[in-house]
Amino acid sequence: MPERQLNVGTARGEPGRWTKGRLTLGEYADGAIESPVNLLCGARPGKVLWVQNAVHGDEAGGAIGILRFLHRCDPTRMSGSIAALMVANQPAFRAQARLTPFDGENMNRCFPGDRGGGHTRAAASVLIDTACEAADAVIDLHSGGNEAIVPFYTIYRDDGSAAAEASRTLAVATGAATVWACRDSWLEGALFASVVKRGKPSVLIECGGGGPVLEEHVDNFANALEGIARSLEILPPPAVAGNAARPSAAGPGTAAARARDPRVIDGCAFVVNRRGGYFEPLVRAGEVVEAGQRIARILSPYGEVLEELVSPVGPAFIASIVRAYLPIHSGIEVAEAIRITKPPGA
What we know:
- The protein is an alpha+beta fold.
- Helix content is 21%, strand content 35%.
- The strands form three sheets. A five-stranded mixed β-barrel has the order 8-9-11-18-16. It has a four-stranded antiparallel beta sheet with strand order 15-14-12-17, with no helix packed on it.
- Helix 1 crosses helix 6 (215-231) and helix 4 crosses helix 6 (215-231).
- The longest helix is centred in the middle third of the chain and has 17 residues, at 215-231.
């Protein structure tokens, strides 16, 4: 594969080195709206992996996972490069908010963006154009943010294309036990769906949220990225007896080595409350539930049970649920139940 120069914003790639810079995504009244960029370039040419975090500004765990992953990598043994954009939605990140404070947009519904649109759509256009020009595969990291919890799982756009099949391969390479082969129309504006439409593989990785970032969540992100990088042959295979390849910090139990036939889900049903109060979950993120099973209830300030919430579908995977005892008003999307289309190992 011929060597190509990797440049992202002011970051200039150099073979065998970690370089840094910034990518401009818009302008404040007094200066640039920028994201930090890390480039880790291998000593030999190969594929380029783009990974980004904080499309939603209150989702920080993925950034730490990226840094942990990059520190594990030895660029002298790499064939190819990794481009890491640390803060995709910088105004939302500064506000520690899910939505962009300028225009109230959810960036993950705005791709492929519009250079002539509002800030969120214009920035989305810069992001996808830059990622698709620079990279062979695009990975987007997410969590439940401040108010919800999600399990560790992956999403790819299942549109039947070659890019979709390559995305499925990368989704399985993360080692996640659940993969969402997504055909839901409401996610057509997500980055991963828009990248697949451009003919390149893309995966969204979900993990954590609800406040604290746990070490387990950080390791899930780092291990998933390692599995993807090995699948793309940017990193060498993990070390085994008689193999001189450098082992990662994760040891022999890497995501790639753990990859198996995962549970497959698709068809998301939202659970919405009709009463305000304190949210009390009765199941945890990642549990499998049946149709009609109670998953949460709403408590009043007087201790009354105002409402019981059930899964509208089943068997279903709880892909997101609001954190325990969060005070909420009526009409909130409190959980996502996604139908299981193939049990694990089936």
